[in-house]
Design a protein that fits this description.
The structure is a homodimer.
Chain A: H1 42-55, E1 64-65, H2 67-74, H3 78-90, E2 95-97, E3 101-103, H4 109-133, H5 136-155, H6 161-179, H7 182-197, H8 206-224, H9 228-243
Antiparallel strand pairs in A: 1-3, 2-3
Helix pairs in contact in A: 1-3, 2-3, 4-6, 4-7, 4-8, 4-9, 5-6, 5-8, 6-7, 8-9
The structure holds a DNA duplex (30 and 30 nucleotides).
DNA sequence: TCCTGACATTTTGTATACACCTAGTCAACC
DNA sequence: GGTTGACTAGGTGTATACAAAATGTCAGGA
């Protein structure tokens, strides 16, 4: 149930055909929540353009997002832009002020801690659930993602760090998918972490990045062992250790920038 | 920051009056996220009407919500109806199917368990945080709400049970507010439980209701003692015990309907 | 010189009109 | 008679036009 409102729903829904005369007797027969076909393009274009502009910093924190301008630059009208902004607001990418419109949120340190607290709670719970239900295919996928991340990180090239971040998101998403709780996945992925964590690895030192990658391996091991407590603990560890790498205040210090990692 | 997108933002944001000669340097200065004034009325009307119709069963599960009809019955046009539906979808009250529109979701038993698992995780964590930061005023409010619920329940009249449900929501919301984590509150309140739990108490037996009310008292005690683990445990208990009262399958049995209590 | 008031601009909020897609129905063909 | 095809209706998706509201500016007065 509850398909992700706009997210790229790559999940086979499976249970669409509960059409078996479900109690309702009236003529206004509720039709079965049919299969999601293809998403239209206007809202999707506006959505992804705005989203990536926020993520990559083109739209800096505090910026006022005017609907007309976004509509022009996206090549669509204001209506789909509004819908896209609403979705982005629901996911925490923008903030709305009643008669002023949408703004790129400014993250405070308190926000940062809120988000990581929630990530720790939700994803460690997801890891616990996943340890119960994980399949061999899930484990293969997780191992493959971990390996890809290690490869990308080993290259040492900063431009690969975005790949690492993307793979990291996929890894965490895969764990949440393996948990079997779709709402949990939706919450953890959409509402919580994305805006902050997306470009995260740019700031990791080489050794911290290595530790993060080792965490991933250990998460897979814990899941493979079907050890719920271990899985929960290592996932919690993994996320809470990342918190301190990414504090907004740490922008200046700039630790060892990844280079020359064998 | 991140004010609740559509919720009645009753928070004094404080930093509204930077109106004095625009201390900014550039013209495209990001303006401060100003105070939330008054929410418009069209979307709000549509939103609350649709929402309550879903909650009270006027719109049964599986029903197709046609925008034009909703617009007519709400006295507004389709545009605000669409926005209201988007918000409701983000909160789990409706589901969207691409070129078919919005439907009232049908809750399966699996959905039910997903939701209660998440509630248990989020709200017990909220109780833990709240035990750290709860103020005397918070405790007073919680005690007052608990007392009101007991009064309403003692009356034994089934029509008061909706009041109990509303007070229950306020109680849980107050705990989450006391946690100090706004995102946690937003997640726990908006995305997770509301549609299912709202009309919940109609199904409680008298003794179960009493137990639930005692839980509330114990939650307050745990918070007053500033005992994080106690608060977390009793909140978890409170929610998980409620899970089994509300299973969809239990519709037929219909236990002792509250009467003559007190 | 500073404050107060109204005005004008800009942007959001809302309404409506149009286009495309989906689904259901009916007819033609195999 | 069953199946396939196109047609028709209904509804969502999108675009645009209009109204309301807020902000910033400017003039007038104390």
């Amino acid at each position: 149930m509850t398909p992700p409102i706009g997210g790229a729903g790559a999940e086979p829904d499976g249970l669409a055909a509960a059409t078996t005369t479900t109690a309702a007797t009236t003529a206004t027969r509720p039709r079965p929540p049919a299969r999601p076909r293809t998403m239209p393009k206007a809202v999707e274009r506006a959505y992804s353009q705005i989203r990536s502009a926020i993520v990559d910093g083109t739209f800096p924190p505090g910026m006022h997002l005017e609907e007309e301008g976004l509509a022009d630059s996206s090549g669509v009208s204001r209506t789909p832009v509004r819908e896209a902004l609403r979705r982005l607001a629901a996911e925490g990418f923008v903030e709305f002020v009643p008669h002023q419109g949408a703004f790129v949120p400014t993250w405070t340190e308190a926000d940062h801690h809120e988000i990581f607290d929630l990530r720790a709670v939700l994803e460690s719970f997801g890891a616990r659930l996943a340890a119960r239900r994980v399949s061999a295919a899930d484990l293969d996928e997780l191992r493959a993602l971990a390996a890809e991340m290690e490869t990308a990180a080993r290259s040492g090239r900063p431009d690969r760090l975005d790949d690492v971040a993307a793979l990291n998101n996929r890894f965490h998403g895969a764990v949440l998918a393996a948990s079997g709780n779709r709402r949990l996945r939706q919450l953890a992925q959409a509402t919580v972490a994305v805006p902050l964590v997306l470009r995260t690895f740019q700031r990791y030192s080489a050794e911290r990045l290595q530790r993060s990658l080792r965490h991933h391996r250990e998460i897979v091991d814990a899941l493979a062992a079907r050890d719920e407590s271990w899985a929960e603990a290592i996932m919690r560890t993994h996320i809470l250790s990342a918190r301190w790498e990414l504090l907004p205040a740490r922008e200046a210090p700039e630790p060892d920038p990844i280079d020359s990692e064998g």
